[in-house]
C-alpha cells in the first residue's frame, strides 16, 4: 500500500520528467465548465450541518478489549483530531438468543428496539456518550433494522400479526424479493408492512431515540425491502421531531433520495467497480458510464463511497484481499469523487483481518498506520468546497489524458476552490500527457508539500497504483 512518503517520492520522480508544453494539440474541455456544474440538486433531506461531512462506522463489540461504550469513549479525542464528523453506531440493541448464530449473535437480530445490549453498557452510559459526541461537534446516527427482528422480540408473541406468515400461519425469515427464496437469515423474522399497527409501532420506536436519547438520525438496514410508502409516512414525523435529521439508506433505490426521505444511499455499484478495477477485471473508463447512469437515476442527495465496511470486511474480504496495492488509490478516489466518504472501524489502522461477525474479535490498532493518510483527506474535504457533498460541491469533470487509458484523472471546482486527481489504476508505470485546456495553473500537492504548475500538453508519469492529489 502506498504510504505518504512513497507518494512524495512518486511526485518527485514525476516532477523530474514532465515537460512544459508539448507540440500535441490539447483536447477539447468538457462542454460545461466545472464552475457551472454541481454534484446534484439541493435536498431537504440533507441537513446544512452535513455539507462537508464524512461518516465513520463504529463497531462497538470489536473496538476495544471491553467492547463497551465507556471504553470506546476513550477514542473520541483521536477521532475528533482525525476529522470525523458523523459516528454511525452499528446496532447497540439487545440481541435475540432464539435461533442465534454463533455465541454472541448478529447485531441485526434485534430483541428490543428501545433497550441497550448489556454487553455494551447501559442506556445512561449511551446517553452520556451521545452528549459527549455532541459537545465535541460530532453527530450520532444509529443503525436501525426496520425489515426484521430477532425471534425473541416481544412482538413475536404479543403481535404475531406484525410479521410475515406462510400459508399455515408460521412466521418466516426474510425473503429475497428478486428470487422469491429466503436470504438465509434464519436468525431473524420478517416484518409485515401491510399491517398499519406495525408501521405506527416502528415509527414510535424510532422517535424514542430522537426525543429521549437525542441522536441525529439513522442508517436504515435493508432499506429497499421496506415499502416506499412507509418512508413517505415515517420520515416527515421523524423530521418534525429532529429538523436536522440525517438518513442513510442501505440501498441504491432512487426514490429514497429523489423523494427526499434519505440524504444519502450506498454507493454499492461504484464500490463493486472499484474492486473490479483493482483486480484488473474492469477498465477505468467504466467509471464514466457508472457516473452517467447515477446522474440519470438520482436527482437529490448523494452516495456514500467506501473501500470497506462491516459487511465487506467480514464477508467479502479485507481491503488488502480485495484491492491489494490499489487500496490507497481507491481510497483517494472514494474521498474525492462526488459523495460522502466512509471510514470503517480499524481502517485507519490498516485493518488486515476479517472481523468475526458473531463472535468477539478485537481490532488490532497497532500504531494507527493509516491515520495520517485519512486525516489529510478529511482535512482536504473540510476546507475545499469543490469536495463538499451534493449540490454544495463541484461535479467531477474528466481531465483529458493522452497515452494511457489506465490513468483516470478528473477535477472538481466550486468557486475559487479546485481539486485535481490523477490515479494510476494499473500495475505498471504510466507515462501520459495532459490534454485538457480547462486545467491549468498552480496547484499544491496535498501529500507532497510542494507546488506544481499544470499546463496543457505537459508530460507526466505515475508509478504503479499511485496517485497525485492536487488542490488550489
What is the topology?
Layout: H1 4-17, E1 55-58, H2 60-63, H3 69-73, H4 76-82, E2 86-89, H5 123-135, E3 139-144, E4 148-150, H6 155-158, E5 188-190, H7 196-212, E6 217-220, H8 228-241, E7 246-249, H9 254-258, E8 264-266, H10 268-278, H11 286-297, E9 302-305, H12 310-316, H13 319-323, H14 327-336, E10 340-344, H15 371-383, E11 397-398, E12 401-402, E13 407-414, E14 417-424, E15 430-434, E16 441-445, E17 450-454, E18 459-462, E19 467-471
Parallel strand pairs: 1-2, 1-10, 2-3, 3-6, 6-7, 7-8, 8-9, 9-10
Antiparallel strand pairs: 4-5, 11-13, 12-15, 13-14, 14-19, 15-18, 16-17, 16-19
Identify the strand order in the major beta sheet: 1-2-3-6-7-8-9-10
Number of strands: 19
Mean pLDDT: 92
Give the radius of gyration: 23 Å
* CA-CA gap between termini: 26 Å
What is the beta-strand fraction?
A: 15-25%
The unreliable regions are 1-36
Helix coverage percent: 25-40%
The shape, in one word, is globular
- Number of helices, counting only DSSP H or I runs of 4 residues or more: 15
Name the structural class. Answer: alpha/beta
> Sheet with the most strands?
8 strands, parallel, barrel
Amino acid at each position: 500500500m502506498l504510504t505518504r512518503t512513497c507518494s512524495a517520492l512518486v511526485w518527485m520522480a514525476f516532477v523530474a520528467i514532465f515537460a512544459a508544453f508539448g507540440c500535441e494539440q490539447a483536447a477539447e474541455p468538457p462542454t460545461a465548465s466545472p464552475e457551472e456544474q454541481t454534484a446534484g440538486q439541493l435536498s431537504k433531506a440533507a441537513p446544512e450541518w452535513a455539507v462537508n461531512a464524512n461518516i465513520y462506522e463504529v463497531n462497538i463489540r470489536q473496538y476495544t478489549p471491553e467492547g463497551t461504550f465507556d471504553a470506546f469513549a476513550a477514542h473520541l479525542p483521536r477521532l475528533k483530531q482525525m476529522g470525523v464528523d458523523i459516528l454511525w453506531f452499528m446496532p447497540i440493541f439487545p440481541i435475540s438468543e432464539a435461533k442465534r448464530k454463533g455465541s454472541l449473535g448478529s447485531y441485526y437480530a434485534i430483541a428490543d428496539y428501545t433497550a441497550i445490549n448489556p454487553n455494551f453498557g447501559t442506556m445512561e452510559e449511551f446517553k452520556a456518550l451521545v452528549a459527549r459526541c455532541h459537545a465535541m461537534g460530532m453527530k450520532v446516527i444509529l443503525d436501525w433494522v426496520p425489515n426484521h427482528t430477532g425471534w425473541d422480540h416481544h412482538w413475536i408473541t404479543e403481535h404475531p400479526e406484525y410479521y410475515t406468515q406462510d400459508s399455515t400461519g408460521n412466521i418466516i425469515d426474510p425473503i429475497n424479493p428478486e428470487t422469491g427464496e429466503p436470504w438465509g437469515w434464519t436468525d431473524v423474522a420478517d416484518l409485515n408492512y401491510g399491517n398499519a399497527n406495525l408501521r405506527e409501532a416502528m415509527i414510535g420506536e424510532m422517535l424514542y431515540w430522537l426525543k429521549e436519547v437525542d441522536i441525529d438520525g439513522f442508517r436504515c438496514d435493508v432499506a429497499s425491502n421496506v415499502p416506499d410508502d412507509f418512508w413517505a409516512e415515517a420520515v416527515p414525523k421523524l423530521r418534525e421531531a429532529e429538523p436536522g435529521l440525517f438518513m442513510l439508506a442501505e440501498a441504491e433505490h432512487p426514490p429514497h433520495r429523489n423523494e427526499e426521505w434519505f440524504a444519502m444511499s450506498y454507493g454499492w455499484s461504484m464500490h463493486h467497480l472499484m474492486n473490479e478495477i483493482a483486480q484488473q477485471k474492469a477498465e477505468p473508463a467504466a467509471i464514466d458510464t457508472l457516473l452517467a447512469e447515477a446522474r440519470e437515476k438520482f436527482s437529490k442527495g448523494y452516495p456514500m463511497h467506501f473501500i470497506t465496511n462491516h459487511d465487506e470486511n467480514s464477508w467479502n474480504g479485507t481491503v488488502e484481499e480485495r484491492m491489494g496495492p490499489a487500496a490507497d488509490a481507491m481510497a483517494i478516489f472514494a474521498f474525492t469523487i462526488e459523495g460522502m466518504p466512509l471510514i470503517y472501524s480499524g481502517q485507519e489502522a490498516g485493518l488486515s483481518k476479517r472481523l468475526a461477525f458473531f463472535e468477539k474479535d478485537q481490532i488490532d490498532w497497532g500504531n494507527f498506520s493509516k491515520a495520517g493518510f485519512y486525516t489529510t483527506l478529511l482535512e482536504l474535504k473540510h476546507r475545499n468546497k469543490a469536495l463538499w457533498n451534493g449540490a454544495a460541491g463541484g461535479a467531477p469533470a474528466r481531465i483529458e489524458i493522452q497515452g494511457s487509458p489506465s490513468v483516470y484523472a478528473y477535477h472538481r471546482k466550486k468557486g475559487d476552490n479546485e481539486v485535481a486527481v490523477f490515479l494510476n489504476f494499473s500495475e505498471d508505470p504510466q507515462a501520459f500527457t495532459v490534454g485538457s485546456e480547462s486545467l491549468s495553473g498552480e496547484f499544491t500537492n496535498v501529500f507532497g508539500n510542494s507546488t506544481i504548475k499544470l499546463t496543457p500538453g505537459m508530460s507526466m508519469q505515475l508509478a504503479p497504483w499511485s496517485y497525485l492529489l492536487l488542490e488550489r
